[in-house]
Amino acid sequence: MDLPKLLNLFASSLLLSVLMVSPATLAGEGSAEGALHELLDAFLAGASINDIEMHDRFWADDLVYTSSAGERRGKAEIMASLRQAGQPDDQALPAYRGEDVAIRVFDDLAVVTFRLVAGMPDGGVSEYFNTGVFALRDGQWKAFTWQATRIPAAGD
Predict the structure, then answer these.
(1) 3-state DSSP percent of the chain in helix, strand and coil, to 5
(2) What mean pLDDT is reported for the chain?
(3) Looking at residue 20, which CATH number applies to its domain?
(4) Spatial CB neighbours of 33, under 8 Å, sequence gap ≥ 6
(5) Is residue 11 part of a domain?
(6) Count: domains in the chain
(7) Percent of the chain with pLDDT over 70
(8) Is 21 contained in some domain?
């Protein structure tokens, strides 16, 4: 084989290797963000129906949750209030969704910021800025710090 053909073959092989490795590398880098986004969506759907198992999955045992009213609670308090409330009528609960979600991953820690939109049963809408800090523990992302801030309605 002559040198130009050999160089062309080498360059093609090198390009193919790079193309095969790059998507895998990118998928690996993007998988944490994707997993966190899926977890957030599943949590918001579960919170819309007071899914106790979803809350248990989402919150870390050492959670510090600061509500939009300035109240601090841990996971134990949140779980106890959910159990005490029981399963309410689906019509009585807000339907939650996240908008403007931004996820930043730092090795085994991640910061998730988003606008929480709560569609109220009476047709009203409440909005909050939420920030959660997650840790990767035993292969699962868990929120261990949470901050919610109510966004004033227009005219407030």
Answers:
(1) 40, 35, 20
(2) 82
(3) 3.10.450.50
(4) 103, 105, 110
(5) yes
(6) 1
(7) 76
(8) yes
Spatial separation of the C-alpha atoms in residues 122 and 151, rounded to whole Å: 19
Beta strands across the sheet bearing 140-151: 72-73, 59-66, 140-151, 125-137, 109-119, 95-106
> Which amino acid is it at 14?
L
> Residue 28's domain spans which residues?
3-151
Q: Which two tokens stand for residue 50?
A: 């007071």
**Does 76 reside within a domain?**
yes
Contacts of 99 (CB under 8 A, 6+ apart): 114, 115, 117
C-alpha span between 30 and 100 (Å, rounded): 17
pLDDT tens for 81-130 read 988 876 665 557 889 999 999 999 999 999 999 999 999 888 899 999 99
Chain centre distance of CA 76: 21
Q: How far is CA 76 from CA 33, 60, 61, in A?
A: 27, 10, 8
